[in-house]
């Protein structure tokens, strides 16, 4: 009888243990991992981290649960270079759970179907690898917060935790700040992708304001910190950029994009050693966002005044790529100018400070350029920058371009660009003779290293000749342009227009020696009408570039001409 009682007691204990095997014990650490986006729709990728963020916020309010912070999960996985994608696999989830010191792991996925969402989750016991039944919620995307609460309730029940009605209400409201933060970041990203223009400061400022507001709701929002830091860097708010990016880096210390994005702000704020350390490490890892990234090492040493290390890295990096070599050549020349006493590191730093006001304050931009010129008045590069700061069609830039070339230390391509920009300014003023002279000098001084410059210079020279009525010269120059760049659409259009004009004039010359001369301002549309009328009338219409009224060299039937214009 006694043995029977003992057997019954053993069964009862075993039953209780089995019943509690899926239940969370007090202080059992729980890790909620990234949810897989089974839809493959990129605009909802944020939910991969968003769903666990909100669940973490909600479950953290349950008194008997210990939920591992999302930041700790990201940091741990980053430290061991473990990707969070594919964690819906239970074996991987158990491995991650052990790395995190978690007793229970919650994993899941979501599927977007039209305007609805299906969220599925599972609970895994790390020690036994036992998986609970699937928990899922389905509903409208705009009710995502309610769905998260419903899922949290299911998970709490699965974990065997009883909660009070008061705790339930706290859980219901938990995570609202995260959602508000994410909504603001989503709007900021929409503006930056759909509307962002580098020169539109209003749009840039709107994006920055949304990032700031998102961080007020959720100061640890990783997406806002990481992406926001990059946006602030691009807007040249370097100190703010560092603040955000370093906070993001605390969560994922090995994130290469964050470390790469910090290099430029570190240089601009004088943290040269940090910039060098990060960039050398990224170079050794083979990571770059742009081919020119390794040149930051040279720039940091240059600003420090360590010209020996500049020469060392110039020799080490030269030849890696043609694009990188253009930046290396630039620093090589600056070092040469400094060693010759033409320029100074101080002037370079002042110039970089000036560029920080490129979008926000033209007065400050010119102020720092002027200070740089005062520091190194023999450096033509500074006058070139001053001219460029006036814009592409401001005649005030011309004397500074001329002074820049007079200094004699501009590179051949910068000399070519200076002449081109002067020519462009004159063309905008309608002075095509002066424009042609300078476009020709731009062509003559081009080094030939950069195809784009060669093509651009020659095209604009051809256009100036066209405007001056030198059709044959323009025609041959355009032919050369199209040989270098067959896809140059503007050149092809002008070439076709001249071919049409030449063929039509030849044809009409054979029909009649009667000539009607028109004089007008330069207007391609009017000119085209004249050509069409020429074909209709059988006359050879000669288009003269002039500001005077029309002149008639031969008599003709006015009524017939009027009919021709009407028909055209």
UniProtKB/TrEMBL annotation:
<dbReference type="InterPro" id="IPR011990">
    <property type="entry name" value="TPR-like_helical_dom_sf"/>
</dbReference>
<dbReference type="InterPro" id="IPR051685">
    <property type="entry name" value="Ycf3/AcsC/BcsC/TPR_MFPF"/>
</dbReference>
<dbReference type="InterPro" id="IPR019734">
    <property type="entry name" value="TPR_rpt"/>
</dbReference>
<keyword id="KW-0677">Repeat</keyword>
<protein>
    <submittedName>
        <fullName>Tetratricopeptide repeat protein</fullName>
    </submittedName>
</protein>
<keyword id="KW-0802">TPR repeat</keyword>
<feature type="repeat" description="TPR">
    <location>
        <begin position="455"/>
        <end position="488"/>
    </location>
</feature>
<keyword id="KW-0732">Signal</keyword>
<dbReference type="Pfam" id="PF13181">
    <property type="entry name" value="TPR_8"/>
</dbReference>
<feature type="repeat" description="TPR">
    <location>
        <begin position="416"/>
        <end position="449"/>
    </location>
</feature>
<feature type="repeat" description="TPR">
    <location>
        <begin position="222"/>
        <end position="255"/>
    </location>
</feature>
<feature type="signal peptide">
    <location>
        <begin position="1"/>
        <end position="26"/>
    </location>
</feature>
């Amino acid at each position: 009888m006694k043995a029977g009682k003992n057997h019954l007691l053993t069964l009862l204990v075993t039953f209780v243990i089995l019943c509690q095997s899926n239940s969370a014990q007090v202080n059992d650490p729980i890790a909620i991992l990234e949810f897989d986006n089974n839809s493959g729709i990129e605009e909802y990728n944020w939910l991969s981290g968003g769903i666990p963020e909100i669940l973490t916020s909600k479950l953290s309010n349950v008194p008997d649960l210990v939920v591992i912070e999302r930041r700790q999960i990201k940091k741990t996985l980053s430290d061991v270079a473990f990707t969070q994608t594919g964690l819906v696999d239970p074996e991987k989830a158990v491995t991650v759970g052990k790395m995190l010191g978690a007793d229970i792991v919650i994993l899941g996925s979501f599927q977007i179907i039209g305007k609805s969402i299906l969220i599925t989750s599972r609970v895994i016991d790390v020690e036994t690898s036992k998986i609970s039944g699937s928990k899922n919620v389905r509903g409208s995307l705009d009710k995502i917060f309610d769905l998260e609460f419903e899922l949290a309730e299911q998970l709490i029940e699965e974990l065997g935790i009883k909660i009070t009605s008061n705790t339930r209400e706290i859980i219901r409201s938990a995570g609202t700040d995260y959602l508000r933060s994410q909504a603001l970041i989503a709007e900021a990203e929409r503006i930056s992708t759909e509307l962002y223009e580098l020169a539109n400061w209003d749009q840039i400022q709107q994006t920055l304001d949304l990032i700031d507001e998102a961080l007020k709701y959720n100061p640890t929002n990783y997406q806002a910190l990481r992406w926001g830091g990059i946006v602030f860097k691009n807007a040249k708010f370097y100190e703010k950029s560092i603040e955000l990016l370093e906070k993001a880096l605390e969560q994922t210390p090995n994130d290469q994009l964050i470390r790469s994005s910090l290099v430029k702000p570190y240089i601009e704020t004088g943290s040269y050693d940090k910039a060098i350390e990060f960039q050398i490490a990224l170079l050794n890892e083979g990571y770059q966002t742009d081919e020119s990234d390794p040149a930051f090492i040279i720039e940091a040493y240059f600003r420090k005044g360590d010209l020996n290390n500049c020469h060392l890295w110039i020799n080490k990096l030269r030849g890696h790529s043609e694009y990188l070599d253009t930046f290396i050549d630039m620093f090589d020349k600056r070092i040469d100018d400094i060693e010759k006493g033409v320029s100074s590191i101080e002037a370079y730093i002042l110039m970089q400070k000036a560029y920080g006001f490129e979008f926000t304050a033209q007065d400050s931009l010119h102020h720092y350029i002027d200070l740089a010129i005062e520091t190194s008045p023999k450096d033509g590069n500074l006058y070139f920058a001053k001219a460029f700061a006036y814009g592409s069609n401001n005649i005030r830039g011309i004397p500074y371009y001329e002074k820049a070339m007079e200094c004699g230390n501009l590179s051949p391509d910068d000399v070519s660009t200076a002449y081109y920009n002067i020519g462009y300014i004159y063309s905008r003023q309608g002075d095509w003779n002066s424009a042609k002279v300078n476009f020709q000098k731009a062509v003559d001084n081009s080094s030939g290293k950069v195809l784009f410059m060669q093509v651009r210079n020659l095209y604009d020279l051809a256009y100036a000749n066209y405007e001056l009525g030198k059709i044959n010269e323009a025609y041959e120059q355009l032919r050369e342009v199209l040989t270098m760049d067959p896809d140059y659409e503007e050149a092809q259009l002008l070439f076709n227009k001249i071919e049409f004009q030449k063929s039509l004039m030849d044809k009409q010359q054979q029909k009649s020696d009667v000539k009607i001369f028109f004089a007008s301002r330069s207007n391609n549309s009017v000119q085209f009408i004249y050509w069409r009328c020429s074909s209709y009338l059988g006359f050879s219409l000669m288009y003269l570039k002039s500001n005077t009224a029309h002149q008639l060299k031969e008599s003709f039937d006015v009524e017939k001409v009027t009919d021709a214009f009407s028909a055209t």
